[in-house]
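Run: sequence + alpha-D-galactopyranose -> complex structure.
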Amino acid sequence: MILSENNVFLLENENLSYMFRVTEHGNLEHLHFGAPVQLGDADAFSVKYGTGWGSNSGPEGEEFPMYLPLEWSGLGAGDYRESPTEFAGEDPAGFKFSHYKTYDGIVPMSCSLPQAKGEAETLEIVLGYIGGMSLHLFYTLFETAITRRAVLYNNTDRPVTVTKLMSYMLDIQGEYEITTFNGSWIAEMRPYRAQVGLSGIVNESTTGFSSAMHNPGFMLNQPGANETSGEVMGFNLVYSGNHYARIQKSHEGLTRIVQGISPVDFEWELNPTESFETPEGVMVYSDKGFGGMSRAMHKFINEHIVPKTWQYKDRPILYNDWEGCMFNFNESKLLSLAKKAKKLGCELFVLDDGWFGERNSDKAGLGDYDVNKKKLPNGLSGLQRKLSDLGLSFGLWFEPEGVNPDSNLYRAHPDWALHANSGVTVLGRNELLLDLSKKEVRDYIVENVSRCIDDGKVSYVKWDMNRHSTALGATAHKCVLGLYEVLDRIFGERPEILLESCSSGGNRFDLGMLCFSPQVWSSDNTDAIERYHIQYNLSYLYPLSTMGAHVSAAPHSQTLRDTPLTTRGNISFFGLLGYEFDLDDLSSVETEEIMNQIEFYKEHRHVFQFGEFRRLRAPEGMSIQVSDNRTTIVGLFHELVHAAPGYERIFPEGLEARKTYSVESRKQLLNASKFGGLLKFILPVKVKPDGIVVRTAGKKYRMWDATQACSASGAALMSGLSLNARFMGTGYDPQMRMQGDFSSNIYLIKEES
Ligand code: GLA
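>> structure
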C-alpha cells in the first residue's frame, strides 16, 4: 500500500516499508527502510537537528543538506557527500519537491531498458529544478522488494549534458557491514566483506558489461547478523552495462548509498523536451538474516524479473557438447552423443560453438551465420529432425555481439565493429564487439538469429558474449540499450524459447539479462567443488532457477581435481542440471549413476529449481537446503577429509516441530577403484592397487554407498540428525558412508501423512 499524509510518504506491506517526508524547504528526508511501520512513526524516525554542526553551509534560511538523511541531493548547495547527479557546467543541486502521483502497477519505461513487472504499486515524486529541468523519482512496491529509478526531463530551451545520473540514492542510519561479489573469469562471485566506514566503498564495472569483476548486487548487514537473524538489506540493479555504487558513512552517522550507470566517461546530451531514463534499482530487506534477505530476493526475481512464460516453469535437463567436443565435431559424433544423452534421461541437446562459417577455432567465423556444411551436411534443420526422432529438443549457441576480424561479416562491414578511441585494435578472445547502437547492426543480428532459430526449430538459445568492451560512457550505454532492443525483438515474439545467457560464464550475471533469459551459465568453471562456492555465493542474490550448473569431466580440465561423480551430480542438483563432457567415455557404472541422478532430479526438479533455499550450518562440511510444503532436500558436502572423523549431523530448517518426517539418503554408486590396494582385503584374488583388475572394477563393479533411513519429528531433525559413521580405515561396515575427499550426500525429508 502507498500512503501519504502531511507530506509523509509510506510504501508498506507485511514484509517491508519505506518512508520519507518532504521538509518545509522541499527536500526529501529519508525516514526508514526496513520492517513494517506506520505513517504516524515519521516523527520517531526524523532526525533531531538541533542547532546543527559548525562547519555548515546551505541555501539561506534552509536546512543544511549535509546533515539530513536524503532521498536525493546534488553538489553545489552544501551537501558534500556523494552526488547522484552531475551536469557539465551546471549545478546539480536544487531539485525540490513539486508534486506526486500514484499508480496501480508499474510505470513502463519508454526506452528499451528492462524493468520488473507484475503486481505492484508505484509512487512518482516529481522534483522541480530552478533551471527548468525536472527529476521524476519512481518508487515501486512489490511483495518482497522496492524498486527505484530516476528519470530526468529537460524542460529548458537549451541542451544539458548529463555526466552522472544515479538510479537511486538513500541515506540510512546505523552500523553496517557490506558484502560485494568480485572475481574474474572462472572465479566469479568471491565475497568481500568490509565495515561501512567514513571512507567510501565503490562497487563498479567499466568493462561495458555488469562483469564477473564486480557483480552489481551487494548486501548491507547489521554486524552480528547471521543466516537466520539480524537485519540484512540486498541491493541490485536491473542493468547489464557499466554500473556504479558507492556506499559511505558520514561523520554524523548517515550512510549514503547510490547506485546507477557508471559515470566514467559518461556524457549524455539531453536536448530540450528529451528525457533520460536510468535503470531500475532493487532493494530488499529482512530481519531474518542473510537467509531471509536471499529468499526475499529470490521470490522477487522468480515473480517479477524473469520472463512471464518461464516463471516457476520447470527447466529441461540438457546435454551441451562444448566441453566434450569444443570445435571438433560432425553430425554423426553429435548424434552418437545425443543417443547417449537420451538414454541417460536428458531432454535437450545443445549444440554449442563451432556450427557456422569457418568456425574451427575461436580465431574465425564469429559474425557469420551460414551453417558449416562440412560438420553439418544436413544443416540445422537436418540435425534437429534427427534429434527430434530421438526424442530430444534442440538448443543452439550464438554469440551475436561479437565478430572475428577473420569473418565475412567483418570483411564486408569493418565499420560495424567498435574500436578503441586510441585507434589501437584491442582484441579479446580474438574478437571485436559489434556496435549495437547502430540500427543496421541490430537488424543484421535480429534477422540472422531469428532465421537460424526458426530454421532449426530451436527451443533453447545460449546467448554468449566473450569479451570486454572498449566503449565507455554514453556509447557503452547505447550498446546495452541496443542489446535489450535486439533481445526483445527476437524473443518477445518467441516467448516459448528458453534463453540462457552466458558471458564467458558469469561475466553478465545480472537482473537486466534475467529479464530476457530466465537462466544464466553460472561459470565456465565447471569443477564441482569450485562451482559449489560460486553457486553458494550467487545464492545470496539470485535464485537457483537462474543458475546453469553442469556436471563435467573428472579429472577436471581447469583444476585437475578428481571429484566423485556423485558429488558432481549432487552439486549440480542445486541449480539447473546439465551434463557437459564426452559421453562416449562413460563406463557402465558411471552411466548407471548418471541415470540415477537424472531420475532423482526429475522427481524433485521443481523443488530444486524453485523451492525455498537455505544455507545451513554444517560444523564439519558445507550444507544447503531446498524445500517446498512437503519435501525438504538437504545437501551435505565435504572438501578435504581428515582422519578419524567425528560424529556428524545435518541441521535442516523450516520444518514443523511437531510433525513427523521420513528421512532417506539418496542411493549413490561408488567408484570401487578409489579404494586402490584396500580391495585386496575384501577380494578373494590378489590384486595390484594400480593394476587392470582394480581399474576395471572401478568401471564395471557396482558398489553402493551406505544409505540411511529413519523417521523423526521436525523438532528432532532441526536440532540435528545424527548421520551414519564415516569411513576411517578401521574396517568395513556396509552401514558406513564411504567418504573421501570431495564426497557428499543428499537427504530427502518428507512429511509423513
Ligand atoms: C564461452 C562459454 C562456454 C562456451 C564457449 C564457446 O567460453 O562460456 O560455455 O560456450 O564460449 O566458445
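>> summary
The first strand starts at residue 2 and ends at 5. Residues 322, 352-353, 362, 397, 464, 466, 502, 504-505, 521, 524 surround alpha-D-galactopyranose (CB under 6 Å).
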